[in-house]
Amino acid sequence: MTLPALPHEMDNHTFRLAVAQFDRAAELMNLDPNLRQRLKLPDRSLVVSVPVRMDDGHVEVFTGYRVIHDSSRGPSKGGIRYHPEVNLGEVAALAMWMTWKCALAGLPYGGAKGGVRVDPQKLSRGELQRLTRRYAAEIFPFIGPDKDVPAPDVGTDAQVMAWIMDTYSMQVGFASPGVVTGKPLSIGGSLGREEATGRGVVYVTLEAMKHLHLDPKKATVAIQGFGNVGSHTARIMHEVGAKVVAVSDHTGGLYNKNGLDIPKLLAASNDHGRPLGDIKLGDRITNENLLQLDCTVLVPAALSEQITEKNAAKVNCRILAEGANGPTTLEADQILHDKGVFIIPDILANSGGVIVSYFEWVQDVQRFFWKEQDIRDRLHEIITSAFHRTLEFSNKQKSGMRMAALMSGIDQVAKAHLARGLYP
Ligand code: GLU
Questions:
Q1: 411 alpha carbon to ligand 1 midpoint, in Å?
Q2: Which of 40, 77, 101, 113 is catalytic?
Q3: Helix axes 401-420, 33-40, angle to 10 degrees
Q4: pTM of the complete model beyond 0.85
Q5: What CATH number is attached to the domain comprising 274?
Q6: Are 171 and 238 part of one and the same domain?
Q7: Which atom of ligand 1 is the closest one to the Cα of 152?
């Protein structure tokens, strides 16, 4: 893999995974060499210091990032992650994946991602608010409804988005709901946004089952991660009649071969505030065991690079639906492909979140709000047609679903670059 001049902080394993995937797709589709160089690196990368007055009076300085990978097709779009291991390479990789994800779904957006290197669990509500507002003030010149539109990701939620919206609005002097998505309903959020990623995972999984002639009522599902994506995926899988046999979080997992009582588990986890390790509603298993369970559908819905060359041979599912971003390394991908696992890649499987973010932004810009059923119907239409386009393309190209999804996304972005030409 050849990487053009790269700031060394960006050069890490997650960024290399994103670039290696891109390179492979670019090779297969014979992408214009100029564009190939150009699309490997982000448009802009901002690193900010975020000083925060802690409750005990001392000032702590956190590091924050906002990376805009591409904005050739519209404002850049992507979440903000609060996690103690966030770094520039990870954020740049996630920004690149957002570009392909938005293009694959046909949304008029480029890709971006942000993050702050912090453990939000260790902050009080006041500290979290001050951190968020200062971070928002530092990235203020980059963001805006027509420029770059953040959203929630790992470790952030609707309240964090409300603080960003307020900080931005106070600077410009009027309420600007379209600057972020995933907001509370009271300030221009959208019905159905919170559950959207999980609902999208279920919609595409049901399409994959149809294609493979599998009955959802006889399917077993294992889900790694019980945050926003994992918990809503579990709930909706349960609602459509699939048997959710295992779930996990960073404290470990719960397993019941006859199916976990998901409504009870959701209530006990207190809106995923309480760790699963404290809940006794199934047999204890480790995250590693969960990934190796014999099941119809495995949903990694936690962090990146969970399925690697070390454990891929032991993965025992028929369908891998990637709720997380980048959960599978390239080596693992090949092993799974050879085993005949049907992969619904991240940029397709988890695109429900950004699709409903798009609906939220459209509603904010038009100041006209939709009914929840309209949101669900339109999400279903967009994500299932993206699934079928990808499947068709993968059959035509004789490539796996991951490469087909990447090639379709990259192709849209390439067309936009070629049409606009190189400035100046
Ligand atoms: N963080 C989500 C993702 O990775 C949503 C991004 C958005 O809605 O802009 O796709």
A1: 21
A2: 113
A3: 100
A4: yes
A5: 3.40.50.720
A6: no
A7: 1
DSSP string, 374-401: HHHHHHHHHHHHHHHHHHHHHHHHT--H
Residue 360 CA to ligand 1 center (angstroms) comes to 12
What is the domain range of residue 156?
Answer: 42-177
Assign 160 to helix, strand or coil: helix
- Indicate if 52 and 128 belong to the same structural domain: yes
Among 342, 296, 351, 295, CA closest to 323: 351
Q: What is the pLDDT of residues 256-312, one digit of tens each?
A: 999 999 999 999 997 667 899 899 999 999 999 999 999 999 999 999 999 999 999
To test ligand 1's pocket by mutation, which of 303, 325, 354, 382 has the most ligand atoms within 8 angstroms of CB? 354
Euclidean distance between CA atoms 419 and 424, whole angstroms: 14
Q: Which amino acid is at 262?
A: I
* Helix, strand and coil percent figures for the chain, each rounded to 5: 50, 20, 30
Return the axis-axis angle of helices 401-420 and 88-105, rounded to nearest 10°: 90
In 3D, which of 365, 377, 353, 322 has the Cα closest to residue 158?
A: 353
